[in-house]
Amino acid sequence: TERTLVLVKPDGVQRGLIGQIIARIEAKGYSIEKLELVHATAEQLAAHYEEHEGKPFYQPLVDFMSEGPLVALVASGHGVIPGFRSLAGTTDPTTAAPGTIRGDFARDWGVSVQKNLVHGSDSEESAAREIAIWFPED
Ligand code: GTP
Ligand code: MG
């Protein structure tokens, strides 16, 4: 079945939102296949965000993702890749719709990085690549 890589970013862990975020994934009917609390290594973040290397927000983003532990998980189910991104809401939490994770819990804190609580793979190719980064034994 389809699988996606979800990260509860350090802002989500720090704010105590792990449970509420996972609850929404489960309530939607997806399965949690793997789950780990990790402090991301520089190597993991460089690989995870390689598509953004060179962009102005890249270094602030990597710094933010290193600020504290994050939760990496693999969720599975038919349509889970677009389905989780729908649960997450748009990238910018200012405009993310109410009812979404970012719309309900995230806001613009006026700093250089968007603290938008979660990451979700954007395609099957990204999911396979990202699952290998966070769960190399998989
Ligand atoms: P992810 O699920 O986290 O990958 O978010 P996304 O797919 O909605 O966004 P994208 O992959 O384009 O960007 C990855 C992350 O970089 C975002 O979630 C934000 O945290 C950050 N980001 C993206 N665009 C910007 C930007 O224009 N400015 C800043 N400061 N951060 C950005
Ligand atoms: Mg993305």
TrEMBL record:
Protein's name in the database: Nucleoside diphosphate kinase
Molecular function in Gene Ontology: nucleoside diphosphate kinase activity
InterPro entries reported for this sequence: NDK-like_dom, NDK-like_dom_sf, Nucleoside_diP_kinase, Nucleoside_diP_kinase_AS
UniProt cross-references to NCBIfam families, sorted A to Z: PRK00668.1
Subcellular location: Cytoplasm
Swiss-Prot/TrEMBL keywords: ATP-binding, Cytoplasm, Kinase, Magnesium, Metal-binding, Nucleotide metabolism, Nucleotide-binding, Phosphoprotein, Transferase
UniProt family annotation: Belongs to the NDK family.
Summary of the function given for this chain in its UniProt record: Major role in the synthesis of nucleoside triphosphates other than ATP. The ATP gamma phosphate is transferred to the NDP beta phosphate via a ping-pong mechanism, using a phosphorylated active-site intermediate.
PANTHER family attached to this UniProt entry: NUCLEOSIDE DIPHOSPHATE KINASE
Recorded name of the encoding gene: ndk
Domain (Nucleoside diphosphate kinase-like): residue spans on this chain: 1-138
Superkingdom of origin: Bacteria
Entry-linked SUPFAM superfamilies: Nucleoside diphosphate kinase, NDK
Cofactor(s) needed: Mg(2+)
Subunit structure: Homotetramer.
Residue positions of the active site: H119
Reactions the enzyme catalyzes: a ribonucleoside 5'-diphosphate + ATP = a ribonucleoside 5'-triphosphate + ADP; a 2'-deoxyribonucleoside 5'-diphosphate + ATP = a 2'-deoxyribonucleoside 5'-triphosphate + ADP
Species the sequence originates in: Brevibacterium gallinarum
